[in-house]
Each structure stands twice: as C-alpha cells, then as structure tokens.
Amino acid sequence: MMDLTSLVEKIKSAPVYDVAVKTPLQYMESLSHRLDRQIYIKREDRQPVHSFKLRGAYNCMFNLTDDEKSRGIVAASAGNHAQGVALSAKILNISAIIVMPRTTPDIKVSAVKKLGAEVILEGDSFDVAKHQAELISEQQNRRLIPPYDDYDVIAGQGTVGIELLEQMPDLEAILVPVGGGGLIAGIAAYVKSVNPKVKIIAVEAEDSACLAVAMKNGRPVDLEKVGLFADGIAVKRIGEKPFEICEQNIDKIISVTTDEICAAIQDIFNDTRAIAEPAGAVAVAGIKKLVHDGVLPEQKIAVILSGANMNFHTLRHVSERSEFGECTEAVFAATIEEHSGSFHQFCILLDGKVITEFNYRIADPKRANVFVGIRMNNSEVEREALMQLFKEHQIPAIDLSDDVLAKVHLRYMVGGIPPLPFREQIVSFDFPEVPGALLRFLETLSDRWNITLFHYRNHGAAYGRILAGFDVPIEEQESFEQSLQELGYRHTNESDNPAYHLFLNPEV
Q1: How far apart are the C-alpha atoms of 304 and 25, rounded to whole Å?
Q2: What is the rounded CA–CA span in Å between residue 147 and residue 84?
Q3: What is the C-alpha to C-alpha distance for residues 124 and 100, in angstroms, rounded to an integer?
Q4: Cα-based distances in Å from 297 to 125, 249, 261
Q5: Mean pLDDT of 119-127
Q6: Which of 7, 86, 114, 338 has the most CB within a 10 Å radius?
Q7: Minimal CA–CA distance to 388: which of 379, 400, 397, 401?
Q8: Cα distance between residue 49 and residue 90, in whole Å
Q9: 416 falls within a domain
Q10: List 88, 255, 306, 322, catalytic entry
Q11: In the chain, how many domains are there?
Q12: Within 13 Å of residue 375, how many CA atoms lie on the same side as its CB?
C-alpha cells in the first residue's frame, strides 16, 4: 500500500485542470430547510464530461511513459470512466479503445464516440467488458486504464477533496457515493490528512454495497449479484487499493434503496435544476436517510453530485418511484362487495385524500378488487390510520406501499384473474435489453409451458422488468425450475406474493 503522505502529495500535484474544471459547491436551500442542516452539493456534473471520472482518467494517462502513450490505451467502462478516458486521450493525442457492455445507455456510447475513441460493445455486464479490455491490452500491447483501482486514478479523484476544503474550510461531514471506491479513497486520503475531524461517510446503493461487504469480511470480496439501476456505481467488488485507504479513513457506511435514490434525484432537481443520474444522487439520498434516522448531528455538510449522464427515458421510472422514496405516496389493495353503490361508499371513505391512482376491476358477481394510490404527508401514521378505517368498515385491505411487485407490475394489471383453473407459476425477470433476449426467453420456456401472463416494462435502463405466468403441472415443477436456471436471467418466483393472490391468482 502506498503511504498516505505520498498519496496526498500525488493529489496535490495532479494536473487535472489541464482538462477538468473546479466545480461549484452549491447551497441546497430547500433541502437544507427541510432537514435543518446546511447542505452543500459539489457539482461534478459540471465537468466537461458531466462526471468526476475525468479527473482520475486524465491524471493516470498524463503520467504514462512516452512509450505507453505511443502504444495506445484501452479501458472498460459502462459510461462515465469511458468519457473521461476518451476526452483525456483526445487532449493527450493517445489512441484509445473503450470496451462497453452492450447494455450501456445510448447517451453514454454516443458521447464516447463523439470524443474520437473506438468503441467496442461486448457482453451484458461490466465484468465481461473488463475481461475483453484485458484481452485487448495483452494482444495489442495497449496500457489498460483502470476506473478506480490505481493510485494515479485515486489521486486525480482526490482533487475533489482539495476543492471542498478550499470552498468550505469548516465542513463537518462529506457524503460520497461509492462504486469501485476511487472517489471516496481520494477524498478521504486528502481530507483526513488536512482535517481529521471531518466525517467521511460512504453511501452505496443497497443492491451493490460492495464496500460494506468488504468491511465485514476484512477484504474485498465479490457480490453474488449487482443491481443496475444506479449503473455508475454498480460494481461487483471494491478496488483493492481504495479499500485499503477506506478501511482506515472513513467514518460510516450506509446504503440506500432505489426509491430513495429516485426521491433524491427530485430533490437535486428542485434545488439546482440539474438532473442527476442515479449514481450521482446517492449521496443526497444518504444524507436524508441519516437525518431522518437521527444519526447525523453535524450541521455543515457536503454531498457529491458525482455525475449527470442520465438516459432520458429513465426519467419515467424516477418520476414514478420518487414519491415512494419520499414516502409521499402509499398504495393499498382492497376487496369490496359488488353491488350497486358499493364503489361509491368506498370512495366516500377516502374523502379528503389526494388520490394518485385508482384501479378497479370486478373479480366475480359478489366482489371487486380495488388498487388505490394516495398522497401522504406523514406516511407511517396515515397508512396505519387508513388501514384501521378499512378494518372498521369491514373492508379487507393490504398495504402494498413496500411491495416492489405491486408497485412495478400489478398496479397496471389489476383484475386479470382467468376464468379457468390451472396451476400457475408467476416469475419476475430482469431482462437484458439486447437483441435476441426475448427470443431466447420464448425458445427456452414457451414451447414447454403455456404462458398465462406476460407484462413487460422498460424505463431505458440496462435491464427491463418482466412479469410472466406459466401453466406448470406440479409433476413438471422441477423441470420448470431447471429451465429457469438454464435461461440464465435473474429471476424470482413470485407465486406466493399476496398481491398476486388477490388480483391475478386463479385459485385452484
């Protein structure tokens, strides 16, 4: 491990401003008022490539030998590192090949090509792209530019820490998004060397929390699976070098949900009119969570907006889920008697509530199922009160506000109970958005088992979400499960989900 004194000197001497800019530290007025803190957001979205990654990429490539520069470079990235490398290569006149997963949003692929780098699309994940980049490095004798596990990259990212203390010398805490760990390692190394009292807090997406797992095990380890919504920090394994620095220099690690990230994107937009990418909003989600939990006493706090390379179509998903992350919407399923006036009576119970969604479907001649979304001010208290109200009026109801299946799929499919009985298996899939994915799905499963339900919803992310139903006799269950494994897509059997049984189950 490089000693921290040497690393801090590398940070101080990093020539990042040949290509990067000193970004503003902007006061978040609305969020500060709500949380009763002084919150400042570091606008790394204002870099030429709309991400902090430019700092580390340029510092690493600047320090290559003349021979390495003449042989060219190669890098693997899902987007932001790729753009930083491509722009740095253009400035330094170095031949560059960037290997990107085929699932990378078009906005990032196009940006890299416009900067003059050769783009190779390979595989459906960063790990496959990384392997291909390593092969190219060996075959073509090109220098591999890592996204985070390199001291020159870490030093370049650490210049964010220099700017933070110059812009706000009396900062008390800094919240940093974590993927591979290069950014937080650089910031922590510098800030702790200058002012050890400043709290450094790592914030991860809960479905890619590789730093927390490494801390628990005392070393970097692979995550079994990685969520892709916050694709900029969707890393399977924390970098070895960043981990060594983080282990000694960060004060706390927390994780945030997809809904919390979506709500944070909205908060950033409200205060700055900037549209952060999901990874870029993670630190804001983190500070809200800590303050709401009453475990962040510091008053003057900086959060890093690490990037803004958002695929436009992802905004639909962000908009829908932000209210859940903010706990300003709750959804309920209720069963009411089916007779004249019953629907009217149910609506009267909700008088004075702001209805965000209402789905109604007759289930049979005696009953009807209702799916309703309601705007909330004090989520927990109001949800409990409404459930009590339903109980008092003898209306069977379920609070689905925390049920992902209900929020993503079933709210659009209420009432689809088939008239004939059969043994139905409901499975949710994460579907890679690549040519041939749907055909592979159908070839593997539909020729053997009749598809009884199929709902597909994509929000412009690397993976779409599918809910599918199959008619599977009990004697074929084992064979069905084996075929799901052979298919290779991430999946979950949702057949026991209570929302499914209420709205879609044929009840054999």
Answers
A1: 9
A2: 10
A3: 9
A4: 39, 19, 22
A5: 84
A6: 86
A7: 397
A8: 13
A9: no
A10: 306
A11: 4
A12: 6
Dist. CA 44–CA 130, nearest whole Å? 25
Give residue-wise pLDDT tens across range 142-195.
999 999 999 999 999 999 999 999 999 999 999 999 999 999 999 999 999 999
Whether residues 101 and 238 fall in one domain: no
Distance between CA atoms of residues 404 and 206, nearest Å: 15
pLDDT for the residue 260: 92
Q: For residue 388, what are the domain limits?
A: 327-402
Listed residue (115, 100, 78, 255) closest to 177, CA to CA: 255
Of 275, 256, 257, nearest to 265 (Cα)? 275
Q: Is residue 383 very low, low, confident or very high in pLDDT (cuts 50, 70, 90)?
A: confident
Of residues 196, 180, 197, 245, the one with CA closest to residue 3: 245
Q: Please say whether the beta carbons of 293 and 35 come within 8 A.
A: no
Backbone angles phi, psi at 332, to 5 degrees: -135, 150
Packing angle, helices 151-167 and 182-194, rounded to 10: 50
> CATH number of the domain that 225 lies in?
3.40.50.1100
Considering only CA atoms, which of 145, 156, 73, 173 is closest in space to residue 116? 73
> pLDDT, tens digit, for every residue of 36-49?
999 999 999 999 99
Tokens of 463: 């993976």
Residue type, 373: G
Same domain, yes or no, for 98 and 185? no
The reply to whether 26 and 78 lie within a common domain is no
**DSSP letter for each residue of 249-304:** H--EEEEE-HHHHHHHHHHHHHHH-----TGGGHHHHHHHHHHHTT----SEEEEE
Q: Do 450 and 345 share a structural domain?
A: no
Q: Are 95 and 89 in contact (CB under 8 A)?
A: yes
Domain boundary among 322, 354, 383: 322
The phi, psi pair for 445, rounded to 5°, reads -120, -40
Q: State the Rg of the chain over Cα.
A: 25
Query: Has 53 been annotated as catalytic?
Result: yes
With 0.70 as the threshold, say if the pTM is over it.
Answer: yes
Residue 451: strand pairing partners: 470
